[in-house]
Amino acid sequence: MTSRQITPPVALAVSMADARASARANGNEQDAEIEIRVRALTAEAEYITGRSIINRTYEVTQPGFTGVVPIPSSPLVEVISLKYLDAAGATQTLSEDAYVVDRSIEPGFVTLAAGATWPTTKQSPNAVTLTVVCGYGNDETATPAAFKGYILAKVREYFAPAGTPESPHLIRGLDCLKVHS
């Protein structure tokens, strides 16, 4: 199974105004550097927690139907499609009636609906393709407070005067968001 992001987030996880204030920047001369730092800290927080903050689209591919198709990140917004290469190599879209999305654990998975059977697929490394949207929303207004707090505190640390100690405890603020699957 492989997972890749096919549509990146369209916004930052925190507003530039909030990030600028955390960096104690006057004006927008440092905006490019602040934005890079926010994006890096967002990626770090998402990696640590197994979550996507701002909505983005993922594609999960696997060689065939092997019981379940995992969702790559939490929270799941929607399943766009579940496609497969049939035995002849033609792309088919599996009917939504044939599968269910199980959200009993995070990040969840797609499994067969009761009474359904997986179709036969072509032998190929990416015979099955699940396309999903994951995230909390389309902009920073949907970002959970724990993510905002972490990102803004780390921005503040990064732009603090030289010699200012970093807090080893900031990362603990993300514990409540970790996906344990």
TrEMBL record:
Protein name stated in the entry: PhiE125 gp8 family phage protein
Provenance organism: Massilia rubra
